[in-house]
Amino acid sequence: MKKLGLLILSGFTLMLSGCSGINVLDPKSSTGKDQAYLIWLSLAIMTLVLVVVFVLFAYFVYKYRYSKARKDYKPVDVDGNRKLELTYTIIPVILLIILAVPTVRITLEQSPDTSASQTPEDGTTKIEVTGRQFEWEFKHENGAEVKDELVLPEDEDIEFNLHSEDLIHSFWIPELAGKVDVFPNKELTYIIRDVERGEYEGKCAEFCGVQHTNMTFSVKVISKEDYRAYINDLK
Fold it and tell me: Which residues pair with 128 in a beta bridge?
């Protein structure tokens, strides 16, 4: 028993060792908040279903538990119950619709696009992102290129034009939005809307070689005035 306890404790320790201080459920952009909303919505629906199932399970186990008074009891054979059958068919369909409608809408709005816009819209900052073993390169609108450091203006939409120079990488800033796979010979456009000021960590979320763990980059979201000064300094 003692060995089993140590084994379980070791397993939990290993799982926790992979955790970090990144909180993907407290996103700092409108895009990330929509994605977190889907997670919370699905979790709420699953919790509701789980509670109902366990309550019914406990109720029927108690109600029909074995006792000496019931040892010779034979239940009545029932062909079916139309109302009950409709109830446990219609309710799951309604729950799936509640989950499916916002999921489809948000997914279609946020899915990366293969067509890159030539000129950014007003209030949009355009940045070209290149992934390669084992670094990220960011090219700003003035042509300046920076490696492993991404500086962004706050409260603006950021349009990332993503591509890889070698193999598949995955562009991910956990506290801003979900991950996007980056492919060689293919350019994807991904927009993160209304980023909030702060410092974050970006990384490659697709195993890409022996130095994959070091393929990280820092993210700083600063005021628009400071961003313009930063761009000018890069020139």
Answer: 139, 161
What is the Rg, in whole angstroms, of the alpha carbon atoms belonging to the chain?
26
How deeply is 179 buried, as exposed, middle or buried, from its count of CB atoms within 10 A (0-12, 13-18, 19+)? middle
**For 142-162, what is each residue's pLDDT tens digit?**
888 999 999 999 999 999 999
- At 116 the pLDDT is 57
d(CA 135, CA 204): 9
- Whole-structure pTM value: 0.80
Query: Vertex 99, ends 97 and 103: CA angle to 5°?
Result: 110
Burial class (CB in 10 A: 0-12, 13-18, 19+), 155: middle
Task: Name the DSSP class of 69.
Answer: G
Query: Which residue do the tokens 């109600």 mark?
Result: 63
Q: Tell me the Ramachandran region of residue 136: left when phi exceeds 0, alpha when psi lies from -120 to 50, beta otherwise.
A: beta
pLDDT in tens, 181-209: 999 989 999 999 999 999 999 999 999 99
Mean of pLDDT over the chain = 87
Token duo for residue 65: 């538990």
Q: Which two tokens stand for residue 174?
A: 């956990």
Sign for the CA dihedral angle at 196, 201, 205, 208 comes to positive
Q: How far apart are CA 81 and CA 89, in angstroms?
A: 12
Tokens standing for residue 2: 């003692």
The tokens for 53 are: 């199932």
% residues pLDDT > 90 (the chain): 66
